[in-house]
Amino acid sequence: MISVPKQSEVHPSERRIILKNADNPDYDVSIDCYERHGGYEVMKQAFSSRKPEELCQEVLDSEVRGRGGAGFPAGMKWKFLDRKSGKPIYLICNADESEPGTFKDRQIMHKDPHQLIEGMMISAYAIQAAEAFIYIREEMPLGAQILEEAIAEARAKGYVGDNILGSDYSCDLIVHRGAAAYICGEETGLIESLEGKRAYPRIKPPYFPAALGLYMCPTIVNNVETLCNVKHIAEMGGKEYAKIGRPGNTGTRIWCLSGHVKNPGYYELENGKFTYGDLIYKIGGGLREGRTLQAVIPGGSSAKVWRAGERFSGKLRSGEAFDWAIDDVPLDFDGPMAAGSMSGSGAVIVVDDSVDIVEVLANINAFYAHESCGQCTPCREGSLWMKKITTRMVNGGAREEDADLLASIGDQIAGRTICAHGEACAWPTQSFVAKFRDKFTEKAKEDPEKASKRPFRLV
Amino acid sequence: MAFELSTEILEYIDKLIPRYPEKRSAIMMILHAIQKEKGFLSLEAQEWVAEKLELTPIQVREVVTFYPFYREKPIGKRHIRVCRTLSCALNGSYAVCDRFKEAFDTELDEISPDGRVTVEFAECLASCGTAPVVMVDDKLYENLNDEQVEAICNKIKEETPANPKAGNTDVS
Fold first, then answer.
1. In what order do the strands lie in the sheet containing B139-141?
2. Which of A116, A117, A141, A428 is the most buried (most CB within 10 A)?
3. What is the predicted ipTM?
4. A164 and A87 fall within a common domain
5. Cβ separation B124–A182 shorter than 8 A
6. Is-above-0.90 flag for pTM?
7. How far off is chain B from A237, nearest CA to CA, in Å?
8. Domain range holding A135?
9. Contacts of A394 in chain B (CB under 8 A)
10. How confident is the model at residue B121 (pLDDT cuts 50, 70, 90)?
């Protein structure tokens, strides 16, 4: 059995459902341990006494939103499945956790793999999947190994494979390893990759996976955390689950806090019950001594940046007016969106005043240029162009017109590509330039010699 | 010499392919297995995979050249991947990378002169809360500081004999 070190202190503010057992000192990844803690009981109950359509309805009632980044309601996604085609249905767990700043799924797979397997098998039964896959990124070889061993244990006990738990339902579960391409996190890119091709995303419509997915068959692609939630939704009932968090933002969410904070880590919190200020200062311990906040990236590096001190005002969907500082923005799906950004994959990156903000964007641009799949010209050429400009800027070659040029390139990418990678690479540039224009302008006046000697070098 | 694989891998591949609804889907897992045994994916290896999966060689090559973790040339005996993405960079990963390069007197993406390592940057190793992080082969090292980097370098030198002529490959 593989042993994984326990990492995180549980903060008193947390309400751990998905990570309930993950960091307990006496908890391990074996099926015996999982069963001792009540594991697979929900699945047994579901298979013995509940119809698949009832489980689908529970997920719909739960209003659970996908934890991968887009935040689309999972029950609605399941409802879109094309069941009339008569083709086999596939379930895919998206474990290609590649958004910079995000590291929650690693914790689940490394520390509680059977929870994912149980969530997946309940989900597979609910949608009547013919086969299920876990697409895991190659940067997590230990996770793949843990899952392989856990699936073998589950198969031996009749939870996976033929005639599951004595029923007439059969479904195999396969761990499939990616090879370090960020675009595989995009569901249609992932499907192409799983089919054995380059991960070029497909155009939606018509290739919505629920209708035309893996092998052109109806397919559901859900994130690791989302599929784990299905187990808890089946256990407590959709309507009961929906009481956790707040309307439209139900359940808990694992937030990943990193960057310049005292206590980086993952924290499972009830949706909408906390703010970004709570996460960064009360839970994350705040900034390092003597430092002040420069920026917050609220939902993974592709999310639009917030500049310290800015305020957001407007009206929520409910009609309620708001006027927030960064610290006041609700920590859920809708809060950051109302504040002009997104919660994305739940990854909050804090940047203090010790670094050059142009270098931060240069680092982000280097990532997205490297990860563009190359299929669409605006993304392939534009991301590289933006990277070249920001790299030149930090290497001492900044020009006065760079800010406008960067903004213009970003504008020409966003909305003009097959998949959301166009936005993922354009939004950081657009928002950094808009929020920190003065810093970009100052850069052009900087002594090039000073730039090349900077000890903190991001590119 | 004809391209050959160990019996163990051949058995693994033969069990793997029927698990997928379409055999082409097995390509990435097969490439991983061959790369692990051979150190890299030669043209002969790619042609072998094409024949095995009834694909054209270019269909295999498209996959090999698209995904960053597949490689077509040998690397050092040990593979050091330093995360360079934002949270790690904010916490000093570029300096960590420099220390590895200095310790093995090598340049990025090259086999070190002693044949022991290849140092590369990786794009986000998904452990941003414990930045900076490094993967040595399949093992992740987290929350690195100078002393830990030095300890890792010493461990590699202790465990891996210098051999300037060969990287992690059976092709000599």
1. B117-122, B78-83, B134-136, B139-141
2. A117
3. 0.94
4. yes
5. yes
6. yes
7. 32
8. 31-243
9. none
10. very high
